[in-house]
Design goal:
single chain; alpha+beta; 16 helices; 21 strands; 41% helix
Length: 518
């Protein structure tokens, strides 16, 4: 019996050994075939390159030709993988330093079209009314078809005081909107405004995730909760295009208790997986929280919104976010260039991938093992189903008001802005408690017609309410700065008004959820 067992063991070992050998041979053959295919493709590329260099009708710059080939290869992967030359390498570092020169917009790619993710508050683009979702179709009269984000950045940024002309295609507006924008030094302030809206409701706006985001936000929250004595909060992440993953984690850590997963990073290689877990005590407690998001909320904003939503820490209100949830790793080539390559995606605590799928080339092999229709559920006691197709869908969707063509023209051509400047110059006696009068609106109407803006009296009357609000905001901004801007903006903001109405009925977060969850 013992002999038979020994023979059986030897037989099993022999079979396993044969399987291993065969598997090794198969893997080796597959690897050899793959290597041979790569060598063949490189030989083909080398042949074509030499053919172009030697026989093309005009002399070519071989360095630029190779650079274009690399850029084409990386652009076929996704909008965020790029080759960085010396200027672009420096550009990458600029945003996180908190100051740069340009017009003040964050841009990305949507359906291979340059798209405004969000304007940066207080900048030239912001003042002229550029909006999240605007398509940049021309720069200096030249079509942007085929442009990369880096191509656009090179043209949009420049010496402060110089002008750049862009043409915008805006949803709901038939004609292109032309903007002439004067470049400025763009100073990024992470928290441009925080204040008390009612006796117990505070508001804080986080506009950017630079290195100072956590510090500025914490200072604002300390003031609201400890000095102003608010007990509820509206946290505004709208048009915040995000930034550093670390800042997204640290901001989330202000709202979640220790031990709660904030975000998970996963790539194709096992070593890319990392889990970021809250470590600090949530010193402001479990107060009722409403987070405002829109389609301009991206990247680190989505980390924060996703973590708060998954743990049922607060109510997410607004529009579905942008869906930029990927990690780019910088691989230096030499001292003057580098490759920025997407190496991982961000996942919320419930397992949802934040990154919205984009069209890629046939070279990218899709992972068919991932079920895109998989259901996800929050991790709190509500255990609600949450959207899992990329981006963060709000708990309460509120449609954003679409501007009419006349409203868009009055903003894009700076009619209201210029009128406010000239009106204040003539009326130095005006005080912050002023009221927009019919006389002021009629004067603005005359100015618009003199500027060749075409409209009928009935069209103007139909948008009078909006024009009055914008004129009030422009004048008050010039009188009181950011304080005046937000006083008017928040007074008429439908999303803020809805958030206030919800918070006034809630003593706890669970009360908030009961108001919107069925």
């Amino acid at each position: 019996m013992k002999t038979n067992n020994s023979k059986l063991k030897l037989t099993i070992i022999g079979v396993i050994t044969v399987v291993i050998i065969i598997s090794g041979i198969v893997v080796a053959k597959l690897w050899a075939q793959r290597t041979a295919n790569i060598h063949l493709a490189l030989q083909r590329f080398s042949y074509i390159l030499n053919l172009v260099i030697n026989d093309y009708v005009k002399e070519v710059n071989s360095d630029e030709l190779i650079k274009s080939s690399i850029e084409g290869m990386l652009n076929a992967l996704d909008p965020y993988s790029n080759f960085l030359d010396v200027d672009e390498y420096k550009e990458l570092k600029v945003k996180t330093e908190g100051e740069f020169g340009g017009i003040g917009i964050q841009i990305g790619m949507r359906d291979n079209i340059l798209t405004v993710i969000s304007p940066i508050e207080g900048t030239p683009a912001y003042r002229l009314g550029l909006q999240a979702g605007d398509k940049i179709v021309k720069i200096e009269g030249k079509s942007t078809e085929g442009y990369t984000v880096q191509d656009a950045i090179k043209q949009l940024r420049g010496t402060p005081g110089t002008k750049v002309n862009i043409s915008i295609k805006r949803e709901g507006v038939t004609e292109l909107l032309d903007f002439t924008i004067v470049r400025e030094i763009i100073k990024i302030k992470s928290v441009p405004y925080a204040g008390k809206l009612t006796s117990d409701i505070g508001y804080v706006r986080l506009a950017d995730f630079s290195k100072i985001a956590r510090t500025e936000l914490e200072n604002a929250l300390d003031s609201l909760f400890n000095k102003e004595r608010v007990t509820k909060l509206i946290f505004d992440l709208r048009s915040n295009s995000g930034g550093l993953l670390q800042e997204g984690f640290e901001v989330s850590d202000l709202f979640l208790p220790p031990g709660k997963t904030i975000v998970i990073v996963k790539g194709r290689k096992p070593e890319t997986k990392r889990e970021f877990v809250a470590v600090e005590q949530d010193k402001y407690g479990d107060f009722p929280l409403v987070v405002l998001v829109d389609r301009g909320s991206a990247s680190a904003s989505e980390i924060v919104a996703g973590a708060i939503q998954d743990w049922e820490r607060g109510l997410i209100v607004g529009d579905t976010t942008f869906g930029k949830g990927s990690v780019q790793t910088i691989h230096p080539i030499d001292e003057n260039s580098a490759v920025k390559l997407t190496t991982a995606y961000w996942y919320t605590p419930s397992g949802r991938c934040i990154n919205k799928p984009v069209k890629t080339s046939k070279a990218v092999i899709e992972d068919t093992s991932v079920k895109t229709k998989q259901k996800y559920f929050t991790k709190g006691k509500g255990h609600w189903e949450v959207y899992g197709e990329g981006a963060i869908a709000p708990d309460l969707y509120i449609a954003y008001r679409r501007y009419s063509e006349l409203e868009s023209k009055l903003i894009s051509q700076g009619i209201i802005f210029d009128f406010a400047v000239k009106y204040l110059a003539r009326h130095k006696e005006i005080r912050p408690d002023f009221t927009v009068t019919d006389e002021m609106l009629n004067e603005l109407k005359t100015t618009a017609k003199e500027k060749k803006i075409e409209f009928t009296d009935s069209q103007f009357d139909s948008v009078k309410t909006y024009i009055s609000q914008e004129l009030e905001r422009e004048i008050k901004t010039k009188l009181l700065g950011t304080q005046g801007d937000y006083e008017v903006r928040l007074k008429y903001d439908e999303h803020v008004k809805k958030a206030i109405a919800l918070l006034e009925k809630a003593k706890t977060n669970w009360d908030l959820f009961k108001l919107v969850k069925k």
